[in-house]
Amino acid sequence: MLTVATEGWPPNVAKATALLAPRGVAVVASPEDAPLPFADAAFDLVTSRHPVRAHWAEIARVLRPGGTYFAQHVGPHSVFELVEYFLGPQPEEVRSGRDPERERADAEAAGLEIVDLRAEELRMEFDDIAAVVHFLRKVVWMVPGFTVEAHRPRLRDLHEQIESGGPFVAHSTRHLFEARKPDA
């Protein structure tokens, strides 16, 4: 069985290779917006976790007839309470990006049948400022350029808010896709 992983974020390529190569999985560095580097109808299953953008035409191209796409996507305005706490209100096109119904339409336009689509909004609680700092240092795209030094006044205000009023609450949105390429 051929098992291949693609990774578009350069810092993760070496990490993914170290973890997956011992399990017989090849890791292919593939820029985010590039065509998938595989032949047409190469796979029975394509999976993804948190793609920046699903390239539906490419997914449909590399799936064999009857093949399945199974993935968890980040939903619209995920953790935006925290993003907007630091960056201020975001434009509507940013807030409404990653809409599951828009993604459904795009998948269907690429010739895929949606078998299942489930959307969830999950509560996140930050009980102290260390948790906020840790999160923003790990998820670097949420508040680009985040540093404690640059955001010290907002961090201090948030610390005081958490100390006096309890955890800072945000919501993570996710949607689970199962799509199928019709049989030939």
UniProtKB/TrEMBL annotation:
Coiled coil: none
Transmembrane segments: none
InterPro entries with a match to the protein in the record: 23S_rRNA_MeTrnsfrase_RlmA, Methyltransf_11, SAM-dependent_MTases_sf
UniProt superkingdom: Bacteria
Pfam families: Methyltransf_11 (PF08241)
Residue span, Methyltransferase type domain: 4-70
Alphabetical list of PANTHER family matching this protein: METHYLTRANSFERASE (PTHR43460), METHYLTRANSFERASE TYPE 11 DOMAIN-CONTAINING PROTEIN (PTHR43460:SF1)
Record-given protein name: Methyltransferase type 11 domain-containing protein
Organism taxonomic ancestry: Bacteria, Bacillati, Actinomycetota, Actinomycetes, Kitasatosporales
